[in-house]
Amino acid sequence: MKIALRRASARDAERLWKMQVEAFSEMYKKYGDSETSLAAEPLEKTLLRLNQTFTYFYFIDFGGTDVGAIRVVDKGNGPKRISPVFVMPPYRNRGIAQSAITEAERLHGASGWELETVLEEASCRHLYEKLGYRRTGETRRITPAMTLVIYRKD
User: pTM of the predicted model, to two decimals?
Assistant: First the structure.
């Protein structure tokens, strides 16, 4: 599977935000999570992230089409974070997210990573565990039906 990561900039904010809202809308409906869901965030939050000096937001290019995005938070001191990674619904289950994470690790270093995912979403947990991420044991209840679980890769 050949993907490429292409750095996004502030001028991409609206397009990136619209993709993010669409990609996370199903989970938003499922869990009713207004606190952390990217489907519920305003455009201004995406723009803020794009302007952070420690944020690297990339479009995931698959066959010449932007099919998702991955954000790497790398402050240079402490673990790097993936927050978020997403693939648009028509392109899911093709190994694209896995390839994007592998490429992000190649660009930013193979170790010292952290992320959160939804405990109730087995496919998300499987993706990260397949890539060598391990649960820390830390969790955070967001709604009665949804818990975030923390993963690390040393």
Answer: 0.95
